[in-house]
Design a protein that fits this description.
The chain has helices at 13-41, 47-79, 82-111, 147-156, 169-182, 240-253; strands spanning 117-119, 163-165, 186-191, 196-202, 209-219, 222-231. It is of the alpha+beta class. It has 2 domains: 13-111; 117-253, Alpha-D-Glucose-1,6-Bisphosphate, Chain A, domain 4, CATH 3.30.530.50.
């Protein structure tokens, strides 16, 4: 090498350290997320610890990933390692995706009322029967909470109405049973004579158990179907029960024709 040839510039130690710190923040955040849901399902932690401690840590961790990832990317492009710059960019992108997910969840939670018992018939909601023994230790009792919740539901979910279909109760019962099976809800009871189906569904991440009762009754030449979905724990369901009812309604109407008024 000639004496006039400049020595290659070494990456900045601090830039590299920032990259490794960004990676550590990402690993921490992902580990918290990987632990929280399974730990709650295994009953190692309670719901408050899961929601208000660990998920809060994960949310702050995702923000740290954005900040550190951005700094690490820019710093290492300028005076560090290009490989570390790429790593910083990955941390930035993943952190941003996680943060958007947390913000979306928070926005949804704030946009819906803090209720957890949703039904298509707020005046005469379907009653749980065979599910009741399964809710002995549940924080939320099986009884419908009353007019205040009904008013809040009607304001928040005006589209949730009795489902009127142009098919016999027997045909609708068969179709509803097929929908329950297709959605892989845990069947609790089927009582064709009463037009009643009861089942339990679990949320994906935390495994929160929500109970469902479906009621099918004659309605002129067709049938009217009502469904109620209720969480066992928590004050707010963050819209989960309403989404479940809509999904059931759409799946049922794909199998039996709606009644034309």
């Amino acid at each position: 090498m000639s004496a006039d040839t400049p020595a290659p510039r070494l990456p900045s130690r601090w830039a590299l350290a920032c990259g490794w710190l960004a990676l550590a923040a990402l690993v921490f955040t992902l580990l918290v997320l990987a632990y929280t849901g399974p730990a709650y399902r295994a009953e190692w932690i309670d719901v408050r610890t899961a929601l208000f401690t660990l998920l809060r840590w994960a949310a702050w961790g995702s923000i740290a990933c954005i900040v550190l990832g951005l700094i690490a990317t820019l710093w290492n492009i300028h005076s560090g390692s290009r490989r570390m710059a790429v790593l910083g960019a990955v941390v930035l992108v993943v952190g941003a995706a996680l943060t958007v997910n947390f913000l979306s969840w928070q926005r949804t939670a704030r946009s819906v009322p803090p209720i957890h018992d949703i039904t298509t018939d707020t005046l005469d909601p379907p009653a749980f029967v065979d599910v009741v023994p399964l809710r002995v230790d549940a924080r939320n009792p099986p009884e419908y909470p009353g007019d205040e919740v009904a008013v809040r539901q009607r304001e928040a979910y005006p589209d949730l109405q009795p489902i009127r279909v142009a098919a016999s109760p027997a045909a609708v019962f068969e179709a509803a049973s097929a929908v329950v099976e297709r959605k892989r809800w845990t069947l609790v009871a089927e009582v064709p004579a009463e037009g009643r189906i009861e089942a339990t569904d679990s949320t994906f991440y935390f495994g929160f158990q929500d109970d469902v009762v479906i009621r099918i009754r004659p309605d002129g030449e067709g049938s009217v179907v009502d469904i109620r979905s209720k969480s066992r724990v928590g004050m707010s369901d963050v819209g989960t029960n309403a989404r479940r009812i809509r999904d059931f309604r759409d799946a049922l109407l794909a199998r039996v024709p709606a009644h034309e008024d």
